Amino acid sequence: MEITGELENKLYILRATQKWSQQEVADRLGVSRQTIASIEANRYNPSLILAFKISRLFGVDINDVFQYMEFSEEDEV
Asked: Tell me, what CATH number does 46's domain have?
């Protein structure tokens, strides 16, 4: 049985709650706006260090920002 998964995030929701632009978040984290856009669109998984920086920026637990969703072959049937 093969187990696969994907990382989902609530970065857009947290950012919108603060009324920050992608550029403002990027500047606060020291990354590019494209990085923030890619994370929000689930096209890019941040490094563990960046994930912790994001959670600290918003004052929430890392699990409140990122959730790892696991799937097995049995789930696809």
From this structure: 1.10.260.40
Its domain, for residue 27, covers 3-76
Look up tokens 């637990």; give the residue. 61
Count up the domains in the chain and report the number: 1
Convert the pLDDT of each residue in 1-41 to its tens digit: 677 888 899 999 999 999 999 999 999 999 999 999 999 99
Q: Using CA atoms, how far apart are residues 45 and 28, in angstroms rounded to an integer?
A: 18
DSSP one-letter code for 52: H
Beta carbons of 51 and 62 less than 8 angstroms apart: yes
